[in-house]
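tokens incoming
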């Protein structure tokens, strides 16, 4: 189980973070996801990737969290401070990334989720579709449209 955790914890964490935008909550729910998976491993039938199965568990845990807390989830984003020895180029890259992440927050929730899962989680469109209860084609279209919206915003800002 430890090896499965090492291979999939990042995917589950990024999936949860893309939904809740809260580092602590995503970490807590990631741990709870693996606990639930361990308790119900006999239910995994191999019909999908193990990471997809874990993300399904994570999604249900997140929904339970929302129901218990009146559907209010803190939207705190923790800022990371750049190290003192960063070069100017690294700082500029980070600033550009922050701008892109801010622009991503303006995208519709599902579209933003698809982009996070594809880029950060490095999941296939098929896996993203399975996790979100949609088709592979739906995931592709949403990724493409989200990317196009981000590019338009970037061009407009320049």
């Amino acid at each position: 189980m430890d090896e499965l955790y090492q291979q999939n914890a990042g995917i589950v964490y990024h999936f949860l973070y893309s939904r809740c935008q809260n580092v602590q909550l995503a970490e807590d729910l990631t741990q709870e996801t693996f606990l639930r998976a361990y308790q119900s491993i006999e239910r995994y039938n191999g019909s999908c990737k193990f990471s997809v199965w874990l993300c399904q568990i994570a999604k249900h845990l997140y929904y339970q969290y929302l129901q218990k807390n009146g559907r209010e989830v803190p939207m705190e984003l923790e800022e990371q401070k750049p190290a003192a020895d960063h070069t100017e180029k690294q700082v500029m890259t980070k600033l550009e990334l922050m701008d892109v992440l801010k622009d991503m927050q303006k995208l519709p929730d599902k579209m933003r989720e698809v982009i996070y899962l594809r880029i950060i989680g490095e999941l296939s469109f098929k896996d993203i579709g399975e996790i979100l209860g949609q088709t592979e084609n739906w995931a592709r279209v949403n990724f493409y449209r989200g990317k196009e919206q981000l590019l338009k915003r970037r061009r407009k800002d320049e």
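note: The radius of gyration is 17 Å.
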